[in-house]
Write a structure and sequence with these properties.
The complex is a heterodimer of chains A (about 150) and B (about 210). Chain A is about 55% helix and about 0% strand. With about 150 residues, chain A is an all-alpha fold. The longest helix of chain A has 20 residues, at about 95-115. Residues about 140-145 of chain A have low confidence and may be disordered. With about 210 residues, chain B is mostly helical. Chain B contains eight helices and no strands. The longest helix of chain B is centred in the C-terminal third of the chain and has 25 residues, at about 185-210. The termini of chain B are far apart. The model of chain B is unreliable at about 1-25 and about 125-135 (pLDDT under 50). Classes of the chains: A mainly alpha (about 150), B mainly alpha (about 210). Chains A and B meet through helix 1, helix 3 and helix 4 of A and helix 2, helix 3, helix 5, helix 6 and helix 8 of B.
């Protein structure tokens, strides 16, 4: 914070920023105000000229956007990004992968059903397997106690 | 709000944005945002409330700057729209190295410079003779003439002088913010302001003397 400014510096501030010390750079405001209070007559002319222009500038009102302009500005903004829901099944795989796998399985089942015969004689093979496991006469066994 | 510097002539805050100058233009509910960055992040994601809040906060200042620089409301509206279109494109990658307001004003100013250079050949800045201190511009025009004359003369100023004057004297930006927008030092800003005021006063006097 500047504690002292010269006469020339205060004139320069008035010429740049106008007559209101509140418009001066913050670091020099207090020193400027003090010098003005100390010898106001030295700066009277500069303040009058600057104040006059300040008054003219203060007469200019800020521009207000029309409703149509505001609407256009808002409408020009991009639409909200859609959130993509993460799959639970194979989430890191591409979309086509699980679909492709399911299709392959379905095709395989259909093909299998189409190719396989309607009845298959499996008894021979089954009988041999059972005989080997339980003995050839296992079919003679009865729950009834021998008499 | 830390880091939020509000120009003297503009009041409001992130949590309580300025009342919309055109309330019928947007009926979205007012939302409190935790910070400027929060508002920008949401706007980048397409949050309509955040977008509307940014428009309402900044469009008036941008429109005023462009109108004073160009002297033409219709052209200023074009510049305002172009400024915001560029803002929407930049938002997703926005990094808070500078204030959004500063960046937005800088974009608008550059767009104004482009248009001004298309209008007239670039010349060196003219420094007028020192005006007669015994005459004041306020004595030269009646009230009804003043606003239009001053607006016209501001738009005729050399572009950097006009920009400095509009940012500081009309919009109340601090020296720090105005010099950041103009990308110059505060000393250079002060020099521009002094010349702008001197040029403006001399041209107002010249106008009066020729009418």
């Amino acid at each position: 914070m500047t504690t002292h400014i010269t006469h020339a510096r205060l004139i320069a501030l008035i010429e740049a920023y106008g007559a209101d010390p509140q418009a001066f750079p913050k670091s020099e405001r207090d020193a400027a105000a003090a010098l003005l209070a100390e010898s106001p007559e030295r700066f009277m002319q500069a303040l009058e000229v600057a104040g006059d222009l300040d008054g003219l500038l203060a007469g200019l009102q800020p521009e207000q956007p029309s409703s149509s302009l505001s609407a256009a500005l808002i409408a020009s903004a991009p639409a909200p990004r859609e959130t993509v829901r993460r799959r639970r099944f194979l989430p890191d795989w591409p979309t086509w992968a699980p679909v492709s796998a399911a299709a392959s399985l379905a095709c395989g089942l259909i093909m299998g059903l189409m190719v396989a015969p309607a009845t298959a004689d499996i008894t021979d093979t089954t009988t041999v397997a059972v005989d080997m496991a339980f003995g050839a006469d296992w079919l003679d066994y009865s729950e009834d106690a021998p008499e | 709000m830390a880091g939020l510097e509000v120009p003297r002539r503009i009041r409001g805050s992130v949590a309580n944005p300025m009342p919309s100058s055109s309330p019928d233009s947007c009926k979205l509910p007012r939302v409190a945002f935790s910070s400027d960055l929060d508002q920008i992040t949401r706007a980048a994601a397409g949050d309509r409330a955040a977008i509307a809040a940014l428009v309402h906060r900044h469009s008036g200042g941008i429109l005023t700057l462009a109108t004073r620089m160009l002297g033409d409301r219709a052209e200023a509206e074009d510049v305002t729209q172009e400024t915001f279109i560029r803002a929407w494109k930049a938002l997703p990658a926005w990094e808070p190295r500078a204030k959004f307001s500063t960046w937005l004003h800088r974009v608008a100013l550059n767009l104004c410079y482009d248009r001004l250079r298309q209008r007239r050949p670039v010349t060196g800045e003219d420094l007028p003779d020192r005006p007669d201190p015994s005459m004041t511009p306020a004595e030269l025009f009646d009230q009804s003439q003043r606003v239009g004359v001053i607006e016209a003369e501001i738009s005729r100023l050399p572009e950097r002088q006009a920009a400095a004057l509009v940012l500081c004297a009309l919009q109340g930006h601090s020296q720090a913010e105005a010099s950041s927008i103009l990308d110059i030092s505060e000393e250079a800003l002060e020099s521009l302001l002094a010349r702008a005021r001197r040029t403006l006063k001399a041209r107002l006097l010249e106008r009066r003397q020729t009418t």
